[in-house]
Amino acid sequence: MVLKIDRDLNRFQEIIKGRIKRNLKKYVSKGEMIGKVGNDVVTIPLPQIEIPQFRYAMQQTGGIGQGDGEAGTPVGFDSEDGSGAGEAGNLPGQHILEVDVSLEELATMLGDELELPKILPKGSSRILAEREKYSSVYHAGPESLIHFKRTFKEALKRQISSGEYDENDPMIIPIKQDKRYRAAKRTERPQNNAVIIYMMDVSGSMGDEQKEIVRITSFWIDTWLRSQYDGLDTRYIIHDAAAKEVDRETFYHTRESGGTLISSAYRLCNQIIDAEYPVCDWNIYPFHFSDGDNWSGEDTKQCVDFLKAEILPKSNIFCYGQVESRYGSGQFIKDLGEHFQGSEVVMTSKIDNKDAIYTAIKTFLGKGK
Fold this sequence. Notes:
Blueprint: H1 4-22, H2 24-28, E1 41-46, E2 97-102, H3 103-114, E3 128-138, H4 148-162, E4 181-190, E5 193-201, H5 208-228, E6 231-239, E7 243-246, H6 248-253, H7 262-276, E8 282-290, H8 297-314, E9 318-323, H9 332-339, E10 346-351, H10 357-365
Parallel strand pairs: 5-6, 5-8, 8-9, 9-10
Antiparallel strand pairs: 1-2, 3-4, 6-7
Helix pairs in contact: 3-5, 5-10, 7-8
């Protein structure tokens, strides 16, 4: 039986989630939204939503607007200068409501808002995962798995057939033979696996602001791809003139002072794919972020040749995001555009600021690959 207060709470939560969905474009660009991802829950602060409070009035205190005072007198201050000095009050102030939204719900909102097509995984039928689904009902089992609906249905049938049921006093009391229990069936199904390989330029021209943009963008990429695949690996590569694989924390907080050779990151990315992620079994997503500065045109040519020969044939898509930096030349995205114009595999996007993250995500994931 669903209590009225539960229905009201569910309706209130749906209203709040509807507001999140309507304003998702704004939340996508805010870093504080992804500050807490424990237990697959994201807490989204929603400003300007006040929690209703009921307060009983004191008796014999007059009605609304009564008492000393003249027109124009400020309300809510104890002193004429409006400083607010005085004793501590006992009334509630304005609140910010935090609504817990699961990553699955968040991914659904993102997909609906950006009109992202569902991804059709490639070559994943060789990997089988054993799963348990509670789709059967048995006459015996632990009390924790009792099927209440089926149990009371059996009790009702027994009482009606035996003449015990009284419609004027419809009390249904199950006995041992009425009890039914949920039981699991083990099934094997194809498991779709994917790997995201993030690459980022950490040379001196990439500052904290640029890395924050990369962090927010990668969160939304992870959120969407996790909703599409049963298993998702994430690898991190940083590079200046040389590339190395690091953990997530190092990825977002390392800053070097050397030059930039983008080809070093692409070669390491390819080594990781060849060593650990067979193309026939894995869906591969390389993402590269930089400010567009590369050491030389010769290295850019090596990057283009390496992409064509090695990385692109193995990848679902290859995405390049170029963040704005006062020190970066911004040339690399132009070079990629020149060599891969009209490509269905290479996606590029300029991310000049946080507001541009929304467009970048749609560009990267909008092909459904």
